Here is the input.
Amino acid sequence: MTTTPFGLSTVLGYPRIGPDRELKRALESYWAGRIDATALHRIGAELRAAVWRDLRHIGVDAIPSNTFSYYDHMLDAAVAVDAVPDRFRRLGLDELDTYFAMARGTAGEPALELTKWFGTNYHYLVPEIGPDTVFVARPGKPVAEFAESRALGMTTRPVLVGPATFLLLAKAASGAPEGFRPFDRLDDLVTVYAELLAELADAGVAWVQLDEPAFTTDRTGAEIDALRGAYARLGAVRQRPRLFVASYFGELGDALPALLATPVEAVGIDLVAGPGDVNRLAGCGPIPGRTIVAGIVDGHNIWRTDLRAAAARAAVLTGVADDVVVSTSCSLLHVPVDLDAEPDLDPDLRARLAFARQKAGEVAQLGRALRDGVAVLPEPPGAAPAAWRDERVRSRLAELPVRRREAYPQRARAQQDRLGLPPLPTTTIGSFPQTDQLRRARAELRAGTLDADGYAERMRTEIADVVALQERLGLDVLVHGEPERNDMVQYFGEQLAGFAATASGWVQSYGSRCVRPPIIYGDVSRPAPMTVGWAGYAQSLTTRPVKGMLTGPVTILAWSFVRTDQPLADTANQVALALRDETVDLEAAGIQIIQVDEPALRELLPLRRAGQRAYLDWAVTAFRIATGGVADGTQIHTHLCYSEFGEVLPAIDALDADVTSIEASRSKMEILADLRAAGYGRGVGPGVYDIHSPRVPAQHEITEALRLAVAAVPADRLWVNPDCGLKTRGYPEVERALAGLVAAAAEVRAELR
Ligand SMILES: CN1c2c(nc(N)[nH]c2=O)NC[C@@H]1CNc1ccc(C(=O)N[C@@H](CCC(=O)N[C@@H](CCC(=O)N[C@@H](CCC(=O)O)C(=O)O)C(=O)O)C(=O)O)cc1
Ligand SMILES: N[C@@H](CCS)C(=O)O
Ligand SMILES: [Zn+2]
Here is the structure.
C-alpha cells in the first residue's frame, strides 16, 4: 500500500452534465442515431478532462475521478460488479447499448426502476440482485478514467458506491425467494470489491473513495455490524489503495465508531446535514493515523459558505484526528455548475451564492486556511438586504384565521350538488404532451423573436385544442393541459416574489434530464395571479368543470434551493400563503375544482425517524394553509407520485384534500388498502395506467385495474385517472390511452348498477 497523503481539500463529486448540458445533447444525439459511440465517448472524455483541469486550476488538491457517468453512478456500480440482469444480457447488444438498455429499457424490456437518491431530486437506477447473481470484478471504467486523468498529469481518486450501500439500495430480483434481501449477499460482493481494489492498486491508484451514505439513515445493529465486517475484510486486502469511506446527507451515528474500528484510512462525515458526528468523533478518543474528511461546504444547496465559521468547525477536528481534509458535504452533483454563467442575477443575491465551481474554490481556500491559519479567509456577506423581508407576509401569516373547512361529508355533499359528476368520474393529472412547438415558442419568447402576446396566443391555441380533445374523448373533469409551464416548480418560482430564476442553473435529475431549480432567497408573496388566466380561458371554452392546477408548498420547497436563515416550515408557510391567494382567485374566476400537487411529500421526509414527525406536521400545515381559503363547495384535489408513500399515509390523510390521486398502477392498486388502513375515507383516484412508458394500455387492463379499485374503495369515492401527468408522452399514445380509460370507466360504471 502507498502512503500518499490525502491532500488538503477535496470535493466528493462534481456535476457531469457539462457547463452547457453538453452531456444531455450528446446522449440524446446518440440515442437518436445522430452521432456514433466514438463521438459520444469523445464528448465524455472532454467533459471529464475539463472537470479535472478546472478543479486543479481552482486549487483543489485531491481530485476525484469516476464521478462522471453516461447515465447514473449506481448503474455504473452495478456494471463494475457485473450485476447485469439476464434479461438485458439476452438482448445481445454491445456493452454501451446494454448499459443504455438497463437505463432506458427497450421496446420489449422495461428499464431498471428509477428512484430517488436519498432526499435529493436526483434519481438512481435500482440494481436487481438475486441469490444467484454472479458478481465479477469489472474495473474497466474506473481504471480507464484514472488513466485518462494520469495522462493529463493528475493522480485522481476513483469514487465508487460502497458495497453495503449498493446492496441496501438494490432490490430483490424477480423470482428471488420470499424474505431474500440483496444485503444478504454482502460477503460475496465484498469478495469482488476486494478484487476491484487490487486491480485499482495495480493501475497505480493511491486512494479510492467508497460512498456509504446508506448509513446516514436508520440502520439496524446487524447492518452496522455487517458494515464493520465488510471494511475489516477490505482493509485486509494485501495489495490495495488507501480507503476513504465517505458518508453524506446526515449523521453516521453508530456506524462511525464501527468504521473507525476497521483499517480504513479515511472517513468522511457531513458536517452540514449531520453535525452531531463531530461530537461522536471526539467521543471516540484520539484516532491516530486516520484522516477525517470534513464535509463543511454544503454540496446540496447554493449558498456561499461562511468560511470563517466553517474553518472554526473543522478546526475542532484537528484536535481529534492526525489529518483533517476539507471537503464538500456531499457530491456537487446536486448544484448547478457555474455561477459565472449568471451575470443577470441581482448582485446582492449573487454575492451570497456559490455553485459547483465556486464551492470547489471554497474547499480549496478552507484547506489552505486549515494549514496556514484563518486570517486569509474573507468576511462572510453581511445581513440580507432589508428589502428581502416582507412584513405584510409575516403579519398575514401570524393572523391567518385558522378557519377549518367543514368536515368532509358536508363538503362532499356541497361539491356534488354543484358538480353533479357521474360515479367514477374520469380526469387527468394536469399536463398534456409538452411538444417541441411549445418548447420552441418559449425559446423564441426568451430570445425575443416572439413577443408576449404572440406567446400567449400560441398557448391559448394549445389550450383550446386540449380542451376540445378532452371533450371529444368524453372526460368528465377537464384540465387546461399546462402548456405554458417549463416545469411544475420553476414556472411558479419565476412568478413569485422572494424567488430568483437562473439562466442556466441546470442540475441533473436523471440520465439526460435536468431541472433548473429556482432559488428562494427572501420572504415569498404573489405579485399577481399565476395560473388564473390560463385556467379561466380553458373554463370559458367548456361547460364541463376545468380543474385548476397548482404545485404544492412542499414540492415547491423540495425542488428549489431554499434559504437557510429560517426554518423550512416558515418558508413553506409563506409559499402556502401565496398559493392560497391563487386558489381564492381561481375560485373567483369560476374554477370549481383545484388540484394542488404534492409529489415530493415523501422526498423531504427526514432520513432518520427522529425528525420525521416534526416535518410531517409542518408539511401538512403548509398544505392546509394553501388549500383552506376556498369555500366548502370548491373541491380540493391533491396528487402524489414518484415515491413509495407507505411511511406518510397518515400525513396524506391529514392533508384533508377532498380527492387524492395517487400513483398505483405498478403496485396493482395495493395503495388503496394501505390508505384505508391509515383511516383515509375521502375521494381517491388511483392511477389506472403507468404514464412512464410509451406503451398504450389495453382497455381490458384498465378495466381490471378499476375492478380491483372498486373492490377496495366505495364507488362513490372513486375517481379514474392515469398515474401522473402526460407531459412526457406523445399525442397519438395519449389519445389512445385516454380513450381506453374513458371506455373502461363506462364499462365498470355499468357493472355498478
Ligand atoms: C416530475 N419530476 C420533476 C422533478 N423536479 C422538477 N423540478 N420538476 C419535475 O417535473 N423531480 C422529479 C421528477 C423528475 N422528472 C423529470 C422529467 C423530465 C425532465 C425534463 O425533461 N427536463 C427537461 C427540461 C425541462 C425544461 O425546463 N424545459 C424548458 C426548455 C428548456 C430547454 O432545454 N430549452 C432549450 C431550447 C428548446 C427548443 O428550442 O426547443 C434550450 O434552452 O436550449 C421549457 O419547456 O421551456 C430537459 O430537457 O432535461 C426533468 C425532470
Ligand atoms: N400536474 C402535474 C403533476 C405532475 S407530478 C402534471 O400533470 O404534470
Ligand atoms: Zn405526478
About this structure: The CA atoms of residues 282 and 371 lie 20 Å apart. The chain has two domains: 22-372, 413-752. Residues 413-752 form a domain with the TIM Barrel fold (CATH 3.20.20.210).
